[in-house]
């Protein structure tokens, strides 16, 4: 991305936007991720330019103007040299005055135009990227939970930040550079031909050499840089793993082995790094030689022509400037093309998300669930997260309004899946779930989900104040209502001890609170949302039992009069449930009240005995 | 930055060689405009083709020599910087591995990772830059000034005005730009923050239907980021044209003054061309110097962060002699006090675990259970009191030797990229397949492993992402069991395993744990109820020791925990 400035300065000319703060440590010739469909993606990106297209046209106009000015600069320089005779003492001041004045105007206009370009382009690229980011985030709202479940946050974040950054860079840098590069090259060529066709021919001698060289080296380095990136990824993965798991490394005395592995990857990385760097570093010096060959050829031919009085000295001077000017953008163009490619590849990855299948919209005539009662029926429900692996086969049960249903069973038995289906995070693949006598797919998703209050094992709090977090489910709630909900959840005790009380700012994911305190806030949040149905998914499993006692009181409070589903693996939390269902391998294997199931002497009984026999025995 | 000394010593010679060739390169660059001007002034002006050929050849020769120097410098610089980076990274990694947990607590793991990756790269890039352009830029600047002045001292007056202005512009540019880019970074962090929060809380957002709220929050951050970055880019857009304009005006002045001088017969036309060439070269090197400075600031910050890690010293000591021990698996805590940073976590802990005993440790979150067991393998050393294993104070034991006797199943399961087999083998590299399977069977992991298509060769992603929480815990238990330790520490390591499976693991352990001292941290009383001894911790103190029956009679805290777990019915019976 950054172009190297490791070369002799261009003579006599101001190049369009001036040397950029590009420092070629790593970026130069870095690996280029190629887009799969360059043209289509580019066309699609163009759609996002929308209103900006007008401004972009204006910028293009400025660039053309600016390029013309910059093309005339060497010509004017040559003219002013011509104004001075080589034999001392005679200077045509009239011509010199004219050319110097023209140059001054050209340079001034160039500065203004360059500034305007930068000024306008900043707006254009940032606005486009903003819209892209906004579209992406809006899209995320419409994607089903399955989308988030199947991707890591790291992967998504990289698309949302790195890829969009890439797009932004491409728009702001490559477009202007590309446009001015092409214009300068073409214009220079025209000027050179106008000045002297013979010299033009002479200066073009080196062009094939330049092409050949850049291509060979670029090919070599792109493979190396790609490899380097792969090794770097491996090394970073290794580092991340061994540093986050340092306790385990130490506990098992694995320091040496980990270091050994590290050194292996590390030395491989440096081996490739040396090669990549050497190869890419060769480009500039060799290019310099080629440029100077070109210069000499032009000087020699020029001198020969001058001897025959076919050209003036001034023409040679301007010509030499032009030939330099001609080669430089050629080098840059190769670079720009790389940036463009990775930018388009980034856009492509962004578009991939924009093309993801959305959560289907509610069918026309979907019913707004206004006053849910909470009568739930599962009828022959079948479901699998993947079409080939079925989690549920013909699951049927009924939960009366206001009743509590507990789901128990081994890990992976499908307890949480029932919750996912109830809230339509996922849809059933067969059978029907009824709420208040209607297929839940008849309701609008919004109103269906609003009727559920969910407390998850992993409480999720947002950065913001405690009050904002409690109000998350019911933004219109008054402060009094917030405090009442907190009191009901037993959360007011600790909140009142905080210096800023309800206005205490939580850091990301509430890490400044204990697990138990966070859970109490999550419960207060659900209480305030006043749902008709309640789902407690391992709500207390990561809390120690004494804290749990606190929370359980709160939970019992809110379960009153609400249809509740409780998932737990600690059996004492669910003994009071109206119905207990034992789920195993996608089947309900036992169903009944605690006493029923104990009497049954089946799975529940043995689970219960496992957990409680000692306690009760000890108690007797 | 003392840690850099050995590297400076090691790479001083090749570095100097690199800089030497860089100097050659710069000199060649500097000579080119002079020769070009001579070609025009003498060769072309006098229409002396021979001279043009001669000087053209000379110029090519110099360029070729410059290119050769550049290539040598390139090879040297690449080797030095990459090897330096590799060495630094490796040494830093070793250092981190050698530090104690107490040292490492000063850094969180994310920051250690950044130091190992970004910061090392930053320093490496800077070193490479030093040998590529950083030294060259001042050389070119200085050389350009000297050559230009030598060429024509009157025209050099123009330089005396232009160069300070450009330098000033660059300084202002950096002064103005830096706070702007800080602001942009902050705004970007916020955009990413909102995004990350949304991703982790997506279920909650969906459950509460707060899409509009999230979108508004995001749009706010997005809008702010856009306006700050536009402002920053726009401010910066002034400087580049301004610098170019200054230099270009300088060139115009040179032309005019030069014209006057030529008319007076004091100057040759070719000088003017050469002079303007030098001017652009000087400008160019000034820009480079400003970049060097930016890079230096960043590299220095990175080096400082690396230096912080190197400055840590592992305070743990031990004697190399290994005293003979008679028992196998006896643990004595004697009046152990411990704190992480001032606030006492453990107070006067005295406890003896006999060989073969299973000791349950129970207490609420924050009572010091995990801290207590992390003292045993010397992750941390006690502040006062002592811990003895098999009668030897562990302060005198090499942590490595000590840890060979101990196997831990940590609370937070950590698995590594590789196959399940490799992960279990972490516990004992020489374990046979049969031993591994036996351990997996005891940990109730064999069945699910055998059910995967690749069995024990199933590859785990980073952190074992493709296993469920309970499965990971069971692999982690198998890893500890295969070690065949004297002391086994289970730190609440069955929390994600369901009751029935946990019971089977406990059953297997009972058979296996014969002769093995087992420390069992648990939340549930049922997990420790049949331990030989239960220790109740409360706020860093032992408030009860004994069997379940004894504790039910004597220990209030234990009774509270018991009641909270049994539920109302039993409570009513009490």
TrEMBL record, chain A:
<dbReference type="InterPro" id="IPR017871">
    <property type="entry name" value="ABC_transporter-like_CS"/>
</dbReference>
<keyword id="KW-0547">Nucleotide-binding</keyword>
<dbReference type="InterPro" id="IPR003439">
    <property type="entry name" value="ABC_transporter-like_ATP-bd"/>
</dbReference>
<keyword id="KW-0472">Membrane</keyword>
<dbReference type="GO" id="GO:0005524">
    <property type="term" value="F:ATP binding"/>
</dbReference>
<feature type="transmembrane region" description="Helical">
    <location>
        <begin position="201"/>
        <end position="218"/>
    </location>
</feature>
<feature type="transmembrane region" description="Helical">
    <location>
        <begin position="178"/>
        <end position="195"/>
    </location>
</feature>
<feature type="transmembrane region" description="Helical">
    <location>
        <begin position="55"/>
        <end position="78"/>
    </location>
</feature>
<feature type="transmembrane region" description="Helical">
    <location>
        <begin position="98"/>
        <end position="124"/>
    </location>
</feature>
<dbReference type="Pfam" id="PF00005">
    <property type="entry name" value="ABC_tran"/>
</dbReference>
<keyword id="KW-0067">ATP-binding</keyword>
<protein>
    <submittedName>
        <fullName>ATP-binding cassette subfamily B protein</fullName>
    </submittedName>
</protein>
<feature type="transmembrane region" description="Helical">
    <location>
        <begin position="293"/>
        <end position="320"/>
    </location>
</feature>
<feature type="compositionally biased region" description="Gly residues">
    <location>
        <begin position="19"/>
        <end position="30"/>
    </location>
</feature>
<feature type="domain" description="ABC transporter">
    <location>
        <begin position="376"/>
        <end position="610"/>
    </location>
</feature>
<feature type="domain" description="ABC transmembrane type-1">
    <location>
        <begin position="58"/>
        <end position="342"/>
    </location>
</feature>
<dbReference type="GO" id="GO:0015421">
    <property type="term" value="F:ABC-type oligopeptide transporter activity"/>
</dbReference>
<dbReference type="Pfam" id="PF00664">
    <property type="entry name" value="ABC_membrane"/>
</dbReference>
<keyword id="KW-1133">Transmembrane helix</keyword>
<keyword id="KW-1003">Cell membrane</keyword>
<feature type="region of interest" description="Disordered">
    <location>
        <begin position="1"/>
        <end position="32"/>
    </location>
</feature>
<keyword id="KW-0812">Transmembrane</keyword>
Automatic annotation (TrEMBL), chain B:
<keyword id="KW-0547">Nucleotide-binding</keyword>
<feature type="transmembrane region" description="Helical">
    <location>
        <begin position="52"/>
        <end position="72"/>
    </location>
</feature>
<dbReference type="GO" id="GO:0016887">
    <property type="term" value="F:ATP hydrolysis activity"/>
</dbReference>
<dbReference type="InterPro" id="IPR027417">
    <property type="entry name" value="P-loop_NTPase"/>
</dbReference>
<keyword id="KW-0067">ATP-binding</keyword>
<keyword id="KW-0812">Transmembrane</keyword>
<keyword id="KW-0472">Membrane</keyword>
<feature type="domain" description="ABC transmembrane type-1">
    <location>
        <begin position="17"/>
        <end position="298"/>
    </location>
</feature>
<dbReference type="InterPro" id="IPR039421">
    <property type="entry name" value="Type_1_exporter"/>
</dbReference>
<dbReference type="Pfam" id="PF00664">
    <property type="entry name" value="ABC_membrane"/>
</dbReference>
<dbReference type="GO" id="GO:0005524">
    <property type="term" value="F:ATP binding"/>
</dbReference>
<dbReference type="InterPro" id="IPR011527">
    <property type="entry name" value="ABC1_TM_dom"/>
</dbReference>
<keyword id="KW-1003">Cell membrane</keyword>
<dbReference type="Pfam" id="PF00005">
    <property type="entry name" value="ABC_tran"/>
</dbReference>
<dbReference type="InterPro" id="IPR036640">
    <property type="entry name" value="ABC1_TM_sf"/>
</dbReference>
<feature type="transmembrane region" description="Helical">
    <location>
        <begin position="133"/>
        <end position="149"/>
    </location>
</feature>
<dbReference type="InterPro" id="IPR003439">
    <property type="entry name" value="ABC_transporter-like_ATP-bd"/>
</dbReference>
<feature type="domain" description="ABC transporter">
    <location>
        <begin position="331"/>
        <end position="564"/>
    </location>
</feature>
<dbReference type="GO" id="GO:0015421">
    <property type="term" value="F:ABC-type oligopeptide transporter activity"/>
</dbReference>
<protein>
    <submittedName>
        <fullName>ATP-binding cassette subfamily B protein</fullName>
    </submittedName>
</protein>
<feature type="transmembrane region" description="Helical">
    <location>
        <begin position="278"/>
        <end position="297"/>
    </location>
</feature>
<dbReference type="InterPro" id="IPR017871">
    <property type="entry name" value="ABC_transporter-like_CS"/>
</dbReference>
């Amino acid at each position: 991305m950054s172009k190297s400035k490791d070369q002799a300065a261009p003579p006599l000319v101001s190049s369009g936007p001036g040397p950029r703060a590009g420092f070629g440590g790593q970026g130069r010739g870095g690996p280029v991720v190629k887009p799969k469909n360059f043209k289509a993606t580019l066309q699609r990106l163009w759609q996002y330019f929308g209103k900006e297209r007008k401004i972009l046209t204006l910028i293009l106009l400025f660039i053309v103007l600016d390029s013309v000015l910059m093309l005339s600069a060497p010509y004017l320089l040559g003219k002013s040299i011509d104004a001075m005779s080589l034999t001392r003492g005679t200077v045509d001041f009239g011509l010199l005055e004219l050319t110097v004045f023209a140059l001054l105007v050209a340079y001034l206009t160039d500065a203004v135009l360059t500034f305007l370009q930068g000024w306008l382009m900043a707006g254009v690229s940032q606005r486009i990227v903003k819209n892209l980011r906004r579209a992406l985030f809006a899209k995320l709202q419409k994607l089903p939970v399955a989308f988030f479940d199947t991707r890591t946050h790291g992967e998504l974040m990289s698309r949302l930040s790195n890829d969009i950054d890439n797009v932004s860079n491409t728009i702001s840098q490559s477009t202007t550079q590309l446009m001015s590069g092409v214009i300068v090259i073409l214009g220079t060529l025209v000027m050179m031909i106008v000045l002297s066709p013979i010299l033009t021919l002479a200066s073009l001698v080196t062009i094939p050499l330049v092409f050949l060289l850049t291509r060979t080296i670029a090919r070599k380095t792109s493979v190396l840089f790609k490899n380097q990136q792969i090794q770097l990824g491996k090394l970073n993965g290794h580092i991340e793993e061994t540093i986050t798991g340092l306790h385990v490394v130490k506990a098992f005395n694995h320091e040496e082995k980990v270091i050994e592995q590290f050194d292996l990857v590390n030395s491989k990385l440096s081996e490739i790094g040396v090669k990549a760097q050497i190869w890419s570093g060769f480009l500039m010096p060799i290019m310099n030689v080629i440029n100077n060959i070109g210069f000499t050829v032009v000087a020699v031919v020029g001198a020969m022509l001058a001897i025959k009085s076919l050209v003036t000295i001034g023409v040679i001077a301007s010509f030499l400037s032009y030939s330099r000017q001609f080669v430089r953008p050629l080098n840059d163009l190769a670079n720009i093309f790389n940036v463009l490619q990775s930018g388009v590849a980034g856009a492509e990855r962004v578009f991939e998300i924009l093309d993801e299948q959305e959560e289907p919209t509610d069918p026309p005539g979907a019913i707004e669930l206004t006053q849910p009662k909470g009568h739930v029926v599962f009828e022959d429900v079948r479901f699998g997260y993947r079409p080939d692996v079925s989690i549920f086969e013909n699951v049927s049960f009924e939960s009366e309004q206001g009743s509590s249903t507990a789901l128990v069973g081994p890990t992976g038995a499908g307890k949480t899946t029932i919750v996912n289906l109830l809230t339509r995070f996922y849809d059933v693949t067969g059978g029907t779930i009824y709420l208040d006598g209607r297929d839940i797919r008849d309701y609008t998703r919004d109103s269906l989900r609003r009727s559920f209050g969910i407390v998850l094992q992993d409480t999720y709090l947002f950065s913001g104040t405690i009050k904002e977090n409690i109000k998350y489910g019911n933004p219109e709630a008054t402060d009094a209502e917030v405090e009442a909900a907190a009191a009901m959840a037993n959360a007011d005790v600790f909140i009142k001890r905080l210096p800023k009380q309800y206005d205490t700012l939580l850091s990301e994911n509430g890490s400044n609170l204990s697990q138990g305190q966070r859970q109490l806030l999550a419960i207060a949040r659900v209480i305030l949302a006043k749902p008709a149905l309640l789902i407690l998914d391992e709500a207390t499993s990561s809390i120690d039992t004494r804290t749990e006692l606190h929370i359980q009181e709160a939970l019992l409070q809110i379960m009153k009069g609400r249809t509740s589903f409780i998932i737990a693996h600690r059996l004492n939390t669910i003994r009071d449930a109206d119905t207990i269902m034992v789920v195993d391998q996608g089947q309900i294997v036992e169903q009944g009240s605690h006493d029923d199931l104990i009497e049954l002497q089946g799975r529940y009984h043995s689970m219960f005995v496992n957990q409680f026999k000692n306690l009760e025995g000890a108690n007797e | 930055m003392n840690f850099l000394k050995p590297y400076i010593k090691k790479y001083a010679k090749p570095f100097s060689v690199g800089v030497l060739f860089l100097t050659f390169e710069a000199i060649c660059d500097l000579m080119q405009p002079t020769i070009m001007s001579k070609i025009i002034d003498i060769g072309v002006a006098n229409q002396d083709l021979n001279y043009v050929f001669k000087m053209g050849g000379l110029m090519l020769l110099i360029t070729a020599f410059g290119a050769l120097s550049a290539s040598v410098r390139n090879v040297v610089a690449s080797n030095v910087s990459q090897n330096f980076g590799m060495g630094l990274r490796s040494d830093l990694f070793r250092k981190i591995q050698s530090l104690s947990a107490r040292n490492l607590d000063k850094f969180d793991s994310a920051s250690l990772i950044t130091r190992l990756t970004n910061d090392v790269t930053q320093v490496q890039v800077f070193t490479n830059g030093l040998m590529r352009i950083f030294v060259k830029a001042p050389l070119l600047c200085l050389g350009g000034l000297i050559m230009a002045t030598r060429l024509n001292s009157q025209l050099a007056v123009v330089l005396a005005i232009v160069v300070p202005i450009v330098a000033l512009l660059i300084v202002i540019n950096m002064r103005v730009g830096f706070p702007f880019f800080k602001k942009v970074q902050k705004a970007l962090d916020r955009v990413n923050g909102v995004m990350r929060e949304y991703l982790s809380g997506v279920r909650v957002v969906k459950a509460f239907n707060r899409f509009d709220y999230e979108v508004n929050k995001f749009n706010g951050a997005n809008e702010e980021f856009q306006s700050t970055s536009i402002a920053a880019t726009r401010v910066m857009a002034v400087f580049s044209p301004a610098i170019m304009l200054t230099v270009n005006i300088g060139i115009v002045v040179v032309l005019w003054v030069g014209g006057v001088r030529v008319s007076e017969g004091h100057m040759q036309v070719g000088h003017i061309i050469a002079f303007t060439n030098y001017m652009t070269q000087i400008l160019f090197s000034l820009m480079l110097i400003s970049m060097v400075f930016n890079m230096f600031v960043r590299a220095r910050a990175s080096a400082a962060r690396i230096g912080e890690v190197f400055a840590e010293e592992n305070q743990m000591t031990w004697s190399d002699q290994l005293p003979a021990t008679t028992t196998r698996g006896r643990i004595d805590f004697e009046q152990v006090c411990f704190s992480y940073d001032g606030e006492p976590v453990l107070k006067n802990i005295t406890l003896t675990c006999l060989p073969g005993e299973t000791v349950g440790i129970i207490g609420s979150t924050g009572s010091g259970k995990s801290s207590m067991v992390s003292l045993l393998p010397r992750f941390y050393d006690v502040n006062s009191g002592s811990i003895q294993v098999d009668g030897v104070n562990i302060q005198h034991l090499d942590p490595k030797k000590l840890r060979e006797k101990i196997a831990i199943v940590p609370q937070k399961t950590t698995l590594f990229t590789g196959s399940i087999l490799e992960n279990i083998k972490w516990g004992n590299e020489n374990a046979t397949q049969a031993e591994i399977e036996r351990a997996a069977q005891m940990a109730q992991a064999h069945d699910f492993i055998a059910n995967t298509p690749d069995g024990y060769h199933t590859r785990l992603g980073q952190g074992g992402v493709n296993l469920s929480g309970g499965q990971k815990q069971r692999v982690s238990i198998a890893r500890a069991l295969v070690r065949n330790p004297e002391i086994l520490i289970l730190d609440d390591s069955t929390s994600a395993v369901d009751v029935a499976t946990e019971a089977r693991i406990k059953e297997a352990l009972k058979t296996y744990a014969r002769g093995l001292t087992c420390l069992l941290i648990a939340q549930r009383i049922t997990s420790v109820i049949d331990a030989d001894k239960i220790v109740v911790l409360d706020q860093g103190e032992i408030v009860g020791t004994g069997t379940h029956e004894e504790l039910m009679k004597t220990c209030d805290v234990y009774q509270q925990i018991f009641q909270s777990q049994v539920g109302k019915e039993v409570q009513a019976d009490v």
